[in-house]
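Lab notebook: predicted structure, single chain.

Context: the supervisor wants predicted structures on file for every construct in the current expression panel, including those that have not yet been purified. This is the next one on the list. No modifications to the sequence; it matches the entry in the shared construct table.
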Amino acid sequence: MNIQQREQFDVIVQKIEKYARQNPSYYRLRVFLLALLGYAYIGFVFLLMCGGIWGLRSLVVSTQSDYLVKHIDYLIIILAIGIIRLFWVKFQRPKGLEVYRQQLPELFAIIDEITKILKAPRIHHILLTSEHNAGVLQIPRLGFLGWQQNYLLLGLPLLQSLSVEQFRSTIAHELAHLSGNHSRFSGWVYRVRRTWDQLAHNGDLFLFKSFFQWYEPYFNAYSFALARAQEYEADRRSVEICGIETSAEELINIYIHNSFLREVFWKNIYEKAIYSDSAPNGTITKLLQALRTDIETHHAVRWLGLALSQITNNDDTHPCLLERLEAMGYLINPDNTNKLPGYIEETAAEYFFGDTLYSFAAYLDEQWKREFGSSWRMLHLKLVYQRQNLTALEAKAYRHTLTPEQALMRAVLTSKFQSIEAAIPLFESLLANEPDHAKANYELGKILLQNYDGRGIDYLNKAIDLDSELVIPSCEILYGFYLRCSQPEQANKYLLLLKQYQQSFKLFKLERQHIKHTDKFLSHNLPPVEALQISEQLSNYLSVSKAYLVRKQIKIFPDKPLYVLGIIRRFVRGTGANYQPDAELIEQIKAEINLSSQVHVIIFNQTNMKLYKVITRVRDACIVSRK
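Prediction complete. Output recorded below exactly as produced.
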């Protein structure tokens, strides 16, 4: 979804939410009729095909050919079987390790208990995954006709971060989505949303896929208010079964552990890609161990504060944490986040799996390694190219004066691959010549505060003043630093500023995710020395025939340029087995472009010729042309 689609989606959602509050009965009727439109379209296509067959038979009969009339019924049977096959849409089974009642009787007992309380349909399959998440999924056995097969997906890391009672709250929330106890209509709409989403993204028949790629986003937006109400309903059911305290602590624990995994654990894992092109062994096992030992209290307080500062948006049907807690009746002051859940003596994973926990984790270790193998190799290459770039910049610094962007990249890569101590003087030297370089101020301020050096405060404040893009990350760092220094008033000042920029920052990232031929492109307007530097770098690639550099016109933070570098490749005789795939070439080029602004690198081919025609028409776009 691009920014225009997001804006349209938000407008529809806001309009419908207002209508739903004013006319709840009519809103539900409209959602019902709109949901039926999907089935009506399927029925229309089916009747159209049947009509085509009947018309063919009538045409053959009108010819009065005994031979054709004699064989037409056989042909109709074959065509009918083909049509039925077309309508027999298969939905992909979710991935995971299936567990059985005899293996984990206590787990199944809890699921049976809550299923009975909620009058929810029976769960047919329970799959164990490596995600820090849980969810229910319905796969229709008969395609459009239904007969749902219910899957419960349980992330083993999630079980390791919750107590048994908190895990019961998770199960109650998930099964409430299927429950007919409070609102059969909401549960039905929940299933329909999932069905249309799967059909839009996984359907094979082009007649269905084309329609549902238009229809599903609109139905999704129109039923969004009902889907969000369903999340509140699921939370209420969880509170009824497990109590306010347990349900609230379950949510808080999930948010804190999600932040830990994102900011600490996975960051440390991915840094190891520089040493090997093969994904590491035992990753999920290490994750389970880290969840029990590696979370420091001051980090948990900061992550909770940041989670409570989030505002509800339309990225997800789930409301923000603060609103979910308030709806439960759990009182927590966002300005005082020291109310952390207590230490869990025995996690749900340890309780249910006992001594077999790490044998299940070993299976998920191998599954994760298989699924992430190709991505890991690409990450390894990216880091190798970055380290090569650092070597080249160091060599160049001895012979010439680096441009500010090159000096910044050298300092950043030095902190990444060598040491923070070696990088600090490089940042200071750059800022002595370019005191208003926003990214350099941010990077130095971040490093200093990570080492509890208060000098970083001024650098980050300057970065905030100079660059809107850096407001959110700078505020997060300053908020954590002041909390650690027991200065909550100062910390909350940055939390308030962070809150003000949240929506703009989300749109900022969304607008820069994708490049399409419908975007408007302008001349790059880079300083001549920087444009020449990129041109010279690209000239070193024998496989690059032409290169075009342009700037995408953007709405959010327009002072932050977004560059697009389009490459036309040529065949180089003698490369043979050493031919570099497009994805690897892109990573290498990106590693060597020493700009602090974002750059999209694209290889032009038959799949993006429309984009090629748009970009090549921009004035002065061509920066490399080799015959």
